[in-house]
Amino acid sequence: MKIGSNFPAQTPDGPLAEKWTNHKNSINLVNPANKRLIDVIVVGTGLAGGSAAATLAELGYNVKAFCFQDSPRRAHSIAAQGGINAAKNYQGDGDSTYRLFYDTVKGGDYRSREANVYRLAEVSANIIDQCVAQGVPFARDYGGLLDNRSFGGVLVSRTFYAKGQTGQQLLLGAYSAMNRQIGRGKIKMYNRHEMMDLVLVDGKARGIIARNLVTGEIERHSAHAVVIASGGYGNVFFLSTNAMGSNVSASWKIHKKGAWFANPCYTQIHPTCIPVSGDHQSKLTLMSESLRNDGRIWVPKKKEDVEAIRAGKLRPTEIAEEDRDYYLERRYPAFGNLVPRDVASRAAKERCDAGYGVNATGEAVYLDFASAIERYGKEQAHVRGLDENDKQLVNKLGKEVVKSKYGNLFQMYEKIVDENPYETPMMIYPAVHYTMGGVWVDYDLMSTIPGCFVTGEANFSDHGANRLGASALMQGLADGYFVLPYTIGNYLSNDIRTGKIPTDTPEFDEAEKAVRDQIDRLMNNKGSKPVDYFHKRLGKVMWDKVGMARNEKGLKEAIEEIKEIREDFWKNVSIPGSADEFNEELAKAGRVADFLELGELFAKDALHREESCGGHFREEYQTEEGEALRRPEFQYVAAWEYKGEPAEAELHKEELNYENIEVKERSYK
C-alpha cells in the first residue's frame, strides 16, 4: 500500500458562511443559448439523480437519464421513511444553519469536510420550499403550518415528514419535475438500462456503455459530462435494508477508470430494523428512526425473564416497569432514545451479546409505544374535556394519535411479523442501512476524473463516519437541486465549442469490447453455483468480520476469505439463459463481481484505520465505557486509487482541518 500525496478539495477561500455564496459569484457560467449545445448523462434517478436531471434540463442542457428499474419512481429513495432535515427553526427551539452544521459534523464523529457540510446546512431550507411548491404533502400542525419532529443526535425538531413515506413523496416531486422535462424533450429517459462502463476521451468523462436489460443490447451514449447518482453499496453485506437491486457497479466502474474511492469502511448500521428471521431471507426491512421519538427501547433486567420470553411463557407486556432496562435512557440521559444511529446500534448489540436479546436468536430488543399511547391519550382526553382516568378511553385516543403519525409503519410491521405493535412492543435489531463512504469528490462534486460528477449517497462528502437520521434525503436533494446545477456549469463552460461527442471512436470501441468480453466470460463460465451462493458467502464474511464491530485479526481473515470467494466465483458461477435477452441473473452476476472487489477494499480500509469513529468500530480502540475512541492522526479522508487489484490500491489522504468547530470527544450523555 503506497501513500499518495494530499489531493486538493478545491474548497473556496474566505469565511465558512460566505464560501458557497462567493463561489457561486465567481464560477464560470454557461449562457442559455449555449446550454442547448451541451449533453449531460445522469446515471440513477433517485432523489439525487432525479432532481439533478430535472434541474439541468430546466436550465436548458440536453439530459440523458438512465435507471435499471422500469421507472424512476422505483428508485430506492422511495423507501426512506422518517423525514428530511432543514434548518428553518419553525419550532423556535434554537435551530439554525450553524446548529445543523454542528450536529452533522459531530454526528459524523469529526470525519467530514467542514465546507461541504456547512453548504449542505445552508441550502437545506431551500429544499423544503422547493418541495412544497411541487406539492409534497408534508405533515402540518393544527394551525396548518409545516410540522417537525426530532431525530437521533440532535436536541431540536428540524425533521419535515410525510407520515412514514417521506422518501416516496419527495421522489414523486422530483419525478413530476422530470416528467415535465421528458415531455419537453429535454430529458431522454432510458428505463431498464444499466451502465456497464465509463468512456474516457483525452482523460475526460465523455460517455457510457449501457446494456438494455430487456433486450440485452449493448449501447453507446456520449455526453460532455457524466453524473453518477446510483446510490450506496450496503448490499455488499447481502442482507441490508437496501432494495435488492441496489449495487455499487456504477461507482465501481468509474473507480476502475480513475475515480478515487473514499472511506469505504464507513457504513451505517441502523438500529431500528426488523430482526433477521432465517437463513433464506433476501433482505431486511427498516422501521423508521422517527419511531424513536415516541418509542422507548428496552430489554428485561433479569435473565430468567429473557428465557421465559424466548420460550413463549412470558409476554413483554407482563414484565413490570421496574424489571425493564431502558438502557439508552440509562446510559445517555441527555439524548435517551434519540442518540445517533451508531451509538444506538452498538448499545443494542452490547445488550444482546450479554444475553438479553428477546427473540429466538437472541438478537432483538423491544421498541415500546405503551408510554406514548398513554401520554397522547391523556392529552387528548384533557383537550376534549373527557375523563383522563378512563384507561380504555385513554388507550383508544392515544392509539389514534400514534396511528396518525406512524400508521403505515405499524401496518408494515404487522404484515411482516404478524404481531400488532399497538398491543405488544415491536422487536428491532441493527442492520446495514446506508454507506457514508463513496466516490471521492471535490467541493464542486467532481471526482478525480474530469467531467465525472458524483452526487447523493454515491459520493462520500457530507456525513463523515456516521449519518444523522433524515440527512440522506437532504443531501440527495441539495446536491441535485442546488449544488450540481451551479458547479457543473463551471466545468462545462469550456465545452461550448466542443460540439457533439462522437461514439464511433477508438475509446468507445475499447470500452464496448471490455464490456462484451466480461459478459462472454460470465455466460461461458459453465460453473455449477448460482450467483446468490457467492453473494451470501460474501455477506456472511462482511457481517461477521467487517460489520458492527471489527478487529485486526478478523479483518485480515476477511481480506483473505473474500479473495478466495472471488476466485471461486470466476471459476464456478453459473449463468442460465443468454446475453441477448432479459437475464436478471446475468445482471446480478456483474453486480456481485463488483461487490467481491469492493468487499476487499472495504476490509482493507477498515484495517488501515486504527481508530474507532462513528460507524467504524475497532474493538482495539474504545473507551472504558465502550464508546468509540478517535485518534487525531486519522483525522483525514482515506481516498483509494485503483491499481489493478484491491490489494494494490494506493492511499491518498485529504487532511480534515476544523477551523469553525471544536473537535472533542463525542458525548450524548
From TrEMBL:
List where in the cell it is found. Cell membrane
Reactions catalysed according to its record: a quinone + succinate = fumarate + a quinol
Chief localization class?
A: membrane
- Domain Fumarate reductase/succinate dehydrogenase flavoprotein-like C-terminal: from-to ranges: 535-668
Domain (FAD-dependent oxidoreductase 2 FAD-binding): give its ranges. 39-473
Instruction: List the InterPro entries.
Output: FAD-dep_OxRdtase_2_FAD-bd, FAD/NAD-bd_sf, Fum_R/Succ_DH_flav-like_C_sf, Fum_Rdtase/Succ_DH_flav-like_C, SdhA/FrdA/AprA, Succ_DH/Fum_Rdt_flav_su, Succ_DH/fumarate_Rdtase_cat_sf
Sorted alphabetically, the Gene Ontology cellular component annotations on this record are:
plasma membrane
Q: Which residues form the active site?
A: R341 (proton acceptor)
Alphabetized, the UniProt keywords read:
Cell membrane, Electron transport, FAD, Flavoprotein, Membrane, Oxidoreductase, Transport
What are its E.C. numbers? 1.3.5.1
Pfam families, alphabetized: FAD_binding_2, Succ_DH_flav_C
One of its GO biological process terms is: anaerobic respiration
Q: Family per UniProt?
A: Belongs to the FAD-dependent oxidoreductase 2 family. FRD/SDH subfamily.
PANTHER family named in the record: SUCCINATE DEHYDROGENASE 2 FLAVOPROTEIN SUBUNIT, SUCCINATE DEHYDROGENASE FLAVOPROTEIN SUBUNIT
Stated name of the protein? succinate dehydrogenase
